[in-house]
Amino acid sequence: MLYDPKREVETKRQDDLLTLRSLIAWLEKKNPAGEYDYIDPFDCLLCRYFKDAGFKEVHVGPWAWSAVGVIERRLPPYFNEVANGTYDTYGAALHRARALLSTDK
């Protein structure tokens, strides 16, 4: 396979998305009362997060995510802790994310 610098840029973008600070910044822009369904692998909180970042046909499982043009990538364990809540709100997820950030995860 030939070297393509665009792949490095895309990998860096994906890595940046997998930080707690990035997830918090996204959650801060959401309506705190907005709801999501944690168990929907195509429209859960993390699916919406990756879709808002421009990825298409996103699928999220408990430990990994994938999308068109993305080989399955592992999720940081704390992402599941933030999103977990069957029918939950963005505000509650933001609260959990900030609590995790204060514990330096």
Percent helix, as a range, is: 40-55%
Poorly predicted parts: none
Main sheet characteristics: 3 strands, antiparallel
Spatial arrangement of strands, main beta sheet: 2-3-4
Please give the number of β-strands. 5
Gap between N and C termini: 36 Å
Treating each run of at least 4 consecutive H or I residues as one helix, how many helices? 5
Domain module tally: 1
Computed over alpha carbons, the radius of gyration is: 14 Å
**What string, H for helix and E for strand, traces the elements in order?**
HHEHEEEHEH
Q: Beta-strand level of the residues, as a percent range?
A: 15-25%
Oligomer classification: single chain
What class, by secondary structure content? alpha+beta
Give the averaged pLDDT, no decimals: 85
Shape: globular
General description of the model:
The chain has five helices and five strands. The protein has 105 residues and is of the alpha+beta class. The protein has one domain (5-102). A hairpin with a 2-residue loop joins strand 3 (64-67) and strand 4 (70-74). Helix 2 runs antiparallel to helix 5 (90-102) and helix 4 (77-83) runs antiparallel to helix 5 (90-102). The longest helix has 13 residues, at 5-17. The chain is globular, with a radius of gyration of 14 Å. The chain starts with a helix and ends with a helix.
Summarize this structure briefly.
The protein has 105 residues and is an alpha+beta fold. The protein is built from five helices and five strands. The chain has helices at residues 5-17, 20-28, 45-52, 77-83, 90-102; strands at residues 35-37, 59-60, 64-67, 70-74, 87-89.
